[in-house]
Specification:
single chain, transmembrane, 0% strand, elongated, mainly alpha, 76% helix
């Protein structure tokens, strides 16, 4: 640990909580948050205009509507999988939605723009564009959202699992828009693979939406892992190298996948079975392992916080165990209705956020505004704890 039990970890800890707007770092964090929101909003709006124009030129309205419906089929299940992984410390829904929209509009629009200009100026062949240009530009355009998070919203990233979740959202959004273009081109016969029609549309749908819907989320996951490792890296060199290495792996995986399609379906199927499917399950295993390790990490961090008087030690089990958390919420709902359940959920979330922050502080890699964020969580804990009761405790009188 980097601090003794007698050292204050957060401004005002152990005494009256200081208003967070008076704490060092909070103003800078708010500026960063505003900058992130403005940049992402403007780029999403511009990307949406560009992609809507491209979509409008890519086929008749009826074709686009059919392609959009088919492209949306894998979106719900994929988003549900990532939300399931993100149960310990759910990320802000606004940021997850921003990642999805970034993938839909900014990443696709930027990649198409760069590939179009590069192809016109440097005259890439179709094969060079597929095997090299597309992986580099598409993974850069998707990964930029993660780099912006690391730069301006680093406090929202707690480790590898968060990087995987945000990367997955960006990849899902990118694949959705790209699939619309591919499905429309297949139906119209403008993809160079045949006369088009229902048969071509069905084949494209099966390959892209049913067999390999995880491809783009998987590629970008490598960048997400690198960003997640950078968050808890102690040295400046590691904080720089991990994201770069992750991006390099994302490009390599993407290029390998695209190259396999050049040599026919047999090679594509072989690569899918031998490399891509195992890689997908390996990343899934890493995500599940990361979530389980987060439970152990949270238990240790909150135990230390309890020793310092920041949270009751008896609450830790009801916070770090997912089954116990559900039981506590159900008990609160039976005892006090929906308001009591909301208070329990908010208390558990505040304690989880404090646990992640406390872990990073003890590790020596806290975000710059850790004191202000810690005070914010402690204020919520102080406000909510007298109003809730866990199973076996007396329900407070309201």
């Amino acid at each position: 640990m980097i601090c003794s039990l007698t050292e204050p970890l957060y401004a005002g800890a152990g005494g009256p909580r200081t208003p967070t707007d008076r704490l060092p770092g909070m103003r800078g964090a708010r500026r960063d948050s505003v900058a992130f929101t403005v940049v992402v909003t403007v780029l999403v709006a511009l990307g949406a205009l560009l992609m809507l124009a491209i979509l409008a030129l890519s086929g008749a309205p009826g074709t686009l509507l059919l392609a959009t419906v088919l492209a949306a089929v894998p979106v719900g299940p994929l988003v549900g999988c990532y939300l399931w992984l993100d149960r310990y410390e759910p990320e802000p829904r606004s940021l997850l939605a921003a990642g999805l929209l970034w993938g839909c509009f900014v990443a696709t629009g930027f990649a198409l723009l760069v590939q179009g200009v590069g192809g016109f100026v440097l005259t890439f062949t179709d094969r060079q564009s597929l095997e090299l240009v597309a992986p580099i530009t598409e993974e850069a355009s998707k990964g930029l959202f993660l780099f912006l998070l690391l730069w301006w919203r680093r406090g929202e990233l707690d480790g590898v699992l968060d990087g995987i979740v945000y990367a997955g959202m960006v990849g899902i959004g990118f694949a959705f828009t790209e699939n619309i273009l591919y499905l429309a081109a297949a139906y119209n016969g403008t993809d160079g693979a045949g006369p088009g029609g229902t048969e071509a549309l069905t084949a494209t749908f099966v390959v892209r939406c049913l067999i390999s819907p995880f491809a783009h989320p998987l590629f970008t996951t490598f960048t997400g892992i690198g960003v997640g490792l950078a968050v808890n890296a102690r040295s400046g060199a590691a904080r720089f190298l991990w994201p770069v290495l992750g991006y390099g792996c994302a490009v390599a995986a993407h290029a390998t996948w695209n190259t396999s399609t050049v040599y026919g379906f047999d090679n594509f199927a072989l690569l899918y079975v031998v490399l891509m499917a195992p890689a997908f399950f390996a990343v899934l295993g890493l995500a599940i392992w990361s979530r389980r390790s987060e439970r152990r990490m949270l238990a240790a961090a909150l135990a230390d916080a309890a020793q310092r008087g920041l949270i009751p030690a008896t609450d830790i089990g009801w916070v770090v165990d997912l089954r116990a958390r559900r039981a506590a919420r159900a008990y609160a709902r039976r005892s006090g209705g929906r308001p009591a359940e909301r208070a329990m959920r908010e208390y558990q979330q505040a304690a989880i956020e404090l646990g992640f922050l406390h872990y990073r502080l003890l590790r020596g890699t806290p975000p710059p505004d850790y004191a202000a964020r810690g005070q914010q969580f402690l204020q919520r804990i102080d406000r909510l704890r007298p109003t809730i009761a866990f199973p076996g405790q007396v329900v407070p009188t309201r």
